[in-house]
Every structure is written in structure tokens, then in C-alpha cells.
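Teaching assistant here, posting this on the class forum so everyone can see the example we discussed in section. The complex has three components, and the goal was to see what a joint structure prediction looks like when all of them are supplied at once.
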Amino acid sequence: MIYHRPKTIEEALSLIGRSAWPVSPLAGGTDLLPRWSAGVQDRPASIVDLKHIEDLKGVSRANGDIRIGACTSMSEIEADPLIRAAAPILAEAVGRVACPQIRNRASIGGNLCNASPAADSAIPLLLLDAEVEVATHTDSGATIRTVPIEEFFKGPGATVVAPGEIVTHLRFKPVPQGAFSAWDKFGTRPAMEIAVASVGVAVELGGGVISRARVGYGSVAPVPLRGKAAEAELLGMALSPEVINRCENAAREEIKPITDVRASQAYRRDVVAAMLRRILQRAASS
Amino acid sequence: MPQVLDRIQIGMVVNGESVTIMAPSTATLLDVLRNGLELTGTKYGCGEGECGACSVLLDGRVVNSCLVLAVECEGSKVLTIEGLESNGQLHPIQKAFVDYGAVQCGFCTPGMIMAAYALLESNPAPTEDEVKRGLEGNLCRCTGYQKIIEAILSLAVRGADDV
Amino acid sequence: MFEAASVATPKRRTKKDTLIGRRIPKLDAPEKATGLARYIEDLNFPRMLYGKILFADRPHARIVSIDTSAARAMRGVRAVITAADINLVPFGYGQDNTALKADKVTCIRDEVAAVAADTPEIAAEAVKRIRVTYEDLPVVASPEEAVADGAPIIHEKIADNTPFRYDYSHGDIEAGVGDSHIIVEDTYTLQRQAHCCLGTSGIIASFDADGRLTLHSLTQVPFLYKNDLARIVGVAPEKIRIIQPPIGGGFGSKLDIHPFEPICIFLAMKTSRPVKLVFTREEEFLATPTRQNAVIYMRSGARKDGTFTFRDVRMTLDNGGRTSWGATTPWIMMRSFSSLYRVPHVRQHADIIYTNNIYACAFRGYGNPQATFALESQIDQLADELGMDPLDVRLINAQKPGETTGQGMVLRTCGLKECLETSAANAGWETKRREAEASRNQQTETPNRAATVRERTKEQAGIACSHCRSMVRGVGMASFFHVGGGAKIYRSDGCGTILKLDDFGAVTVLTGSSEIGQGSETVLAQIVAEGLGLPMKNIRVINNDTELTPWDVGVHASRTTFIAGNSVLRAAREARRKLLAAAAARLKREPDQLDLSEGKVVDGATGEALESIGKIIRGLHFGSKNELIMTTDFYEPPSTAPDEDQMGDISACYAFGTHVAEVEVDLDTGVVKVIKVCATHDVGRVINRLGLEGQIEGGIVQGLGYCLSEEVKVSEGRVLNPSFTDYKLMTTWDVPEMELSFVETNDPAGPYGAKGVGESPLIPVAAAVANAVYNAAGVRIRELPLTPEKVLAHLKAASRPAE
């Protein structure tokens, strides 16, 4: 493998865009390296290490949005004061990725680009209506297109990012004061766990009823899934036990889990329902 | 695909010493530490970041060295278990592991100690839950973790309120 | 200065300053904590090659042909071997295994070919280039399929696929049934558990110019291993030397000869170069044996007052495609069935059945965790039927010291009653059990569960769910019975010691017993230091080289502290006698007026220091008699091998203990969280408190893994989860509060009264937790592991209205 270490996005794009051989951008590598060594994925002829591009790192404010560089590590995001204030569930979710060793390496951009239905950062970003900035090499340098997170995932391991493109940033609006958001993940043990299922909820109240609702599910569909049916049950309603029940039923209906070595389809439905109910009960009492 | 002489020169600072080595581009940091530098205190346990036996500090942060390519470490600082002892004196974490019975077969021990080192560097007074979180990526099959947790808690700097 | 002045006057050694019972750090801990300890993967030799094995990767097939030409043609490949290239000597407990397989493979891990190459990468690539043509045969995926009519025969010699059967009985079952007021029967299903030693398996083989073979090997049984290997590889046993580097975990996994070991020797033979073969983690999961899965049917009865009347057990163990020592676990299982609590009538029948699954070997507890899960679950079911407190039922039936069990085992000491009472008291048994029952009854009376289950505080509910009302708690208990003084499986259960005192008062202890992380070397040093009045730092233990150390049966059956401990103690006492005699002659006293303390000969009455031990030895060495102090001992425990009916006093003493687990069950997700385990063990006597606690804590957490999450999942002979990603070990977050207590029964046969404890703490964990889940949530789960999904399925089934 040939190793490249570009310093700018443009340089990275030109290395990736021009290559005649298989080339792979490399961020934290915590998913790629095991895939290479297990032979699940072929090693590319060259790798472009994105970790030394200053513009891809860190959290900033941009026109009222929060903007995260794609190579920012899970640990950095978890500890970032801006994230903790503006999007606490994102801090919580990335803080529950695997373990410190992985969180110190794994990047949020890599987590999204690997497009696992279990990606821990994806659900909070869905709730935040985040947008993904994707850069392409052009003769004039880099061109950026913006993709809503909901349209970003195409299937297990597949995204809208085309060969030659890289994800550079994520952006979203801070959660307003007084809004409720929560996220939880279920595994068979507390740590080092690929989610059997995860659930996130964000609601804003106006005039005693829910004025904005977002529900998201992980590990229960080919992609991290927005819970539109559940959201519809919430919108314009107060959080009564009946509404919570209806929402739970909607969730059971709209998720499309599979049975695998980690859990059965039926169990994933039960766990999603239980997590959703608990989160909504918390919302009701908060 | 191009056929290239697949060895790359890598310079890094390991345990305070500058080293330059030639390694295959596919080599991990773990490979280079163990085979290139004969720092065999860092262990291979799974090769996929699931056990923590290969934990080292890379530029001050604990990582699984099996999940880092050696070429990524060009210009970096690496601290391994061999870098903790100084002048024949055990590092306080090593001493606590010995005294508290945190070592049995010992295979997970170097990785555990490096994870503990990183934890205590960033949080000198961890609570029990913080210790558990700091070591959640390190598997041990012998001790049941209890004595490891006790060893690290014994080093936690306590404020006056806690005394 | 006067000589006497440098001899500080030690106080007479009182009970308080004995080394026995103290917390002594493990002797090799500094070496391991600094990363200096060299494990098998860390050792390299000049011109060493790397071995790699080609596994069948199909469960049942005939080998039609093997084409190794492409592998042989690779640069850097030094040897490629198949069954055609080696001595095909059968080995293993069933003599149904060979290093490489010639005609047929019977499980995915069967070894078909092997390569030695200059680098691990070349070896791995070469193995991929070996082309094997197979003719697939029908897969026998379970014991039921194996004994069905017309099932394919897996090994030609065994037409019914049942290579071993074990029968045991005492008393008369029919009489027991007639004597019973209540009878309970049920079936319990146990899964495969992987050892998951953090260090993967490996070996280095090298031959010297005289054809002597040196093995750096991780075996737990070096002397038996040497003898068996000699036959397999065709090297005289006296020409084999076994050196054991530090071992990254054993737990029984290194009790058998595994095919990779002779394969590596054959590669070294073929290339005349040292060859190292170390498994990857995936190979470790696929190609090392597991704890055996078992289906245990049990029926037992009791009288109204709670007295047990009979126990009738039939079980089926999945042997997999080859036979290891794992096939003999019913020997140990029957001992718990026959002798944990007093039962007048017991019968056991076990079938060991070939399948095309991966096979099992010894694993901490040796069948006893499976047996105890069934047994202790059923005792709770009996208690439930009787309407009695499970603690009372157990106390009524607990053996007392001096009894002989139905299987002829003599309980010279027995602390079971104290263990039951202590664990129950520590756990707050009465109160917690009643609370759980009351809350459960309340639940079943009202349809709306969520409204009636007590709301718990945030702290109680734990971090995962702070507002839920669906958490219930309960307590459960289980005891165990295990050998504590070795097990006479062979004609000798002995261990040898050579004790060598140098002329400065330092001692080298050469023991046949091995250190596999359990801390035996520290305990042995402690016993010698105590016996000779020397500080710990003066003792060095050599325990890893068959060229130096005297014979021993091996590390198994929780025997090392007891057997090797007795042997070093006797050698130390003999050395002490010689030292005191020499001191008495030199100091013109009687030996019985003298004592040894902190490296000094002291006045037995006043404790006054009289002379350093080193000086006494030098006096002996350079004096007129020119003597050295070296003693030897071979200790054979006073146990007897079982007779044909499996009757007999197999161990020199027996260990007992009781665990009480407190759990919290999440009724919505089925998650079982173990809050606390109160473990009380009859250890005879505490030798090294630190090491003992470590063994118990580690055993509890390993037992929790067995109970809650660990399972090697196999389907159609294939392993579905060969990685730490999907084989779930306990992590730091899973550690419960553990309250340990020790009952010291001071066994007259034990070294300073101690019994073995290595395996014990794992044995009762699963049963205690399952009983606690019943107490908390009212569901009796008879199948391990208690995964959230399984628990929830039981909860749902229980809440469905009865028809």
C-alpha cells in the first residue's frame, strides 16, 4: 500500500480523484483495519490518511450552526463543551461507542461512511436533522454538496458518497432551550457492544402539545431509520399514556429488523418498544 | 496495481527514544512494536480491537495498537508498558497492580496498565464507575476485574472532602 | 561488631506473625506488570520458522485428494505436510484423533495439512494455496440426530455413535421413589463455553544435534504430556524436554494434547529448524475445545420434612467429532449428584455421543458447573413444591463432618452448614427473599403489572434506565461439592519436590507442579518460607522445566495447593530438621530448644536470635562433615482410586461452598443484572488471602459469563461467533459486589489445613443466579445462558393467561 498524508482537503481530493488504482480514504481505521486483516475487504493499493487535515478536525460554530469536522474523534466530540451544550445526546451516543481505545481513534465521519445500521452517532444526527457536507475534486479545487442525513445512507455499508468524494463536515442547529432529547442503546452487556437496537427521541413542546418530534432507530433496518410513523403519533399531542402506547405500536410496525447471531427479529421489536416507552415516560415526567 | 518495494521508513519516538524503522506498509503499530522493536510487553489478544491487550498510548491517548497502521505513526510519540518503569523502579500503577493482586496470568496486564495510565493522566481522581469506564475495552479472564479496579482506585487522588 | 549484634532479636513468632493467611503479592507479578514476562508469542529463536495449519472448514467429509504443489512452490515455504507425511498414531481419550487427518474429517476444526515457512505471512498464504478435494457427507448436527435410526456413522468403530457410557448408582431408586412425598422432574440444557484465555495457544518445537526435542509448551500436565507425545511423534520420552513459558490462561484448556502440538513437532522434524505455531484469535475460537454442552434430565424427591429421598439423572453430552478428556466429565458430575447434600438413593446414566460439532475438553469445574446447575435448580424446585425456604431445605440435607457419602467419599472435614448460613446472613437472605416473593404475589394478583411493581429509586434502577418501574429484585443460592485434595484418576496423584538451600539461606524449590496464573508458585514459596522461618524474598520456585523438576500429575482437579503444597511442606520440614540438628550441634543446645524465624536460628523459649541460618549452613558445608542441605519429597495423597462401580474416597479432602446471588431483572427487556454475590467457601485454611480472593472473584465472574452471556453458537457443525465481538465475555461493568467469607475447617490432610479452591468458585454461580431470577421474576429458566432475549421469552410465556 502507498501511504499519503495530505494537509488540505484539495490535496486529499486530488489524490483520491486521480488514482488509477483502488484507493481508500483513511480516518480512524477502527472499522477498516479489522476488515482488511480478516480479508472481508481487499486492501487498497493506496491509502489517503485524512487525519492531518486541520480543516477536518474539531467543532465550531458557523452561522448559528454547529459544524463538526469529519475526522473529529468520538472522544473529542464527547468532551467538546459546544456539543455537550448544543447536542447532549450526540455526546452521550459517541461516549457509548465501544471503549476509550476505539473512541480515541474512531471518527464521526468514518462512523457515518461505514454506514452500519448500528452506527452509534447516526441516530442523534437524524434527530438533529443534520446535514453532511461531501466534497468532490474539480478543476477549480473542491466543490461541496450538502446531503441531509436522512438521505445519506443507502443500505448496509452504502452511502451517497461516490468514489472520489469525501465527507468533510457535519452541521446541525443546536437543540433549543427546553427541548427534550434522549438516546439509548441496547446490547447484551454494558460495554464493548454493537447495538442490538438503539432508539432516540427529540421533542419540542408548544402550547402544551408536541410541536416537533423526531424518532430514530438503529440496528433495526438496513439503514439508521427515521421513525416517521412514531413521530406522527406524537405531533400535536400531549404525552399521555395512550399516546405513548400508540407511538410504541407504531414503532413496532415501522421498524424492519432481522434475525442474526446477536438477536432475533421479534426481540429487537420488544427492545425498541421498551426503550421508546421508557424514553417517552421520561419525557412526560420532565 | 503498481508493484512497489513494500517497505516504508517510519520515524517515531517510542518511550522517549527516537527510532527509525523499515516496515511493510500493511504492518500495524502492534507488529512494529513487537517484531521491529522487540517491545513484546504489548500483547496480541485478538487483532480486532476487542480485547485491549495491545493498548499503548499514541500521542498521549490510549489506543489499540492492532488498529493503527505503523505508517500512521510517522512523527508520533508512543508509550508502551516498557516505558513506564524508570531506574528499575516500578511505576506506581505497576506497583499497585502487584500489591493489590491485580495480576494473575498477566497476559492482559500490560494493556490494562496502559489503559489505567491514560485514565489517571486525564482524571487523577476517578470514581469506581469512571475506572470501570476507563477499562471497559480491556478483557481479563482471570481476576474478575475486582482487584484491578481496587488497584487503580488506590491511586486515585482524593480531595480533602473525601478523606 | 559482635556477630550477635547484627542478629536483631526477632520476637518469638506468634500466631499473628505467621505467613499463613497473609496477603502475599504474586511472585511473578512485577515481571508481568512490566511487560518483561516472555509468553510463547514473545519467544523467538535463530532460524525459527512459522507453522500454520489448514483446517477442514467443513463438518463431515471424505478427503478425496490434497494438492500441495502450489504451496510447496512458494518462496519461503520450507515444508508442507499432510497425513501422508507423518506417523499416524491415534491419540486422545478415545484414541480417535490423529495429528493430521487421513481419510475423513469429522468437524470443521479437523487438521488437514500444515506449512512451515520463513514468515507468518508466507505460511498463511501457503495454507490458502493448498487444494483439498472433499466429498461431503451428511452432517450430524446434534446428539439426537446422531442416535436416530439410520444416522451416519461418524467413526467406523462406533456404530451407534456413542463411544462412552457412564453408569453410577447407590441405594435403590425405587425405594427412594416410594419414600417420597413429592417428586420433581425436569430437563436442563447447558451450552458450550470457550476458555478464552487471553493468550492464544502456541508451541515452539526444536531438535538438537542429538535428536533431543525441546518444546516450549503451554501444557498444564508436562509429565503426562511428554509420555503421550513421545508415542505420537516417535521420539523417546527421555529425549523430550518441556519448558513452560508463562501461560496466558489455562482453565483446563491445556490438559489435553491438541493436534497443533504434534503437527508443530512434525514440521520441526521435517525442516530440522525450530518451528513456532501460535494461533490467531479466530483459530483459538474454532480450533480449541470448549466446555461440553449437555442435556441433563433429573428427577428427585423429598419427604414432607424436606429430607431428600432420591436423585435419578440421565444425561447426554455432545462429544463433537473427536474425543478429548472432556468425555470423562461424568466422573466428576456423578460426584455432585451423589454427594452434594445427603441422598440415600442415586442413579446416573450418561451417554457421550459423537456429532460433527467441534469438540469439548476440560474446563474449570470439569462437568461440575453443568451438574450443579441442574441439581441446585431442582433443589429450589423441590423447596417450592414443599413450601419451604430453600435455605432450610439445604440445611436439613447438608452433610456433617465425619460422614461418608453414598459414593464412599469420607468427609473428614465439612463446612457446608457454615457456608450456607454465612452466605445467607451476608446476603440478608430472609428479608430479601420475602420482599421479592411479596412483590411477586402482588404482581400476579393484579393484571396491570406496571402499576403495582414497586417504583424504585434512580440508584436502584441503575444507569441504563432511571425512570422505569419494571425492575424486580430477588435472591438465589446454590452450593457446590468438589474435590479439594486432588483426585486419584491415575494410579498416582502425586507431586515431587526438590528443596535446595544455598549457603546464604536462600532456597530454591523445584516442584513438579505448574504455574498457569493461579498463583501456586507464591503459595508454595509461602509454605516453604513458613516452614523454614525464612523471609519470602529468600525463596525461589522453579516449576517449568521437566529437565529440572521432579514428576507431577499436572495442574487439574484444584490439586496444586494441596498436593504440591504438602510435598514442599514435607521437604521443608525435613530441611528444618537438618538445620536444627546442625544448629543444635553448633550452639550446644538440643534441637527442640531451637526454632527458626526470619532467617535466624532462635531460642525456642525466648525468641532470642542465636545465629543466622546462612551461617549454620556454611558451618555444615565447610565444617568437618561437609554436608549440604538438600531434601526431596514425593507426596502421594491418602486417597483411593474409585473401584469399578465408581465407589471410593477419590480425594484426600473435599471442598464445599455456597453462593447467594442478588439479581435485578428488567421485565421489559429480560436483562439480568447481578448486583451482589456472597460467596462462602470451606477452604480448609487460608494460605495466601490475596491469591485466594483473586481465585474466588475471578471464578465468580467467569461463572457469571457462563450464566449470562457466553455461548459458542454452533449450527450445522459451524461456529457462528468465533470472535470477541459476538462471544460475550464479562467486562468491567458486569462485576457485581462480591462479599467473600472463608470457613476454616483445618483439614488434617491439608498443608497447614488448606484445601484446593481453583475450580470451586465458578461451579455454583449459574445455579445461584437462575434461582435468584426465579425469586425475582417467578420464571424458572432451565437453559443457559440467561440472555436477555431468553429471559424475556420466559417472562412473556409466564404472563400469558393459562388456558
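For the discussion questions: Chain C touches chain B through 55 residues (CB under 8 Å). Confidence is low (pLDDT under 50) at residues 1-13, 445-468 of chain C. Think about how each of these relates to the inputs above.
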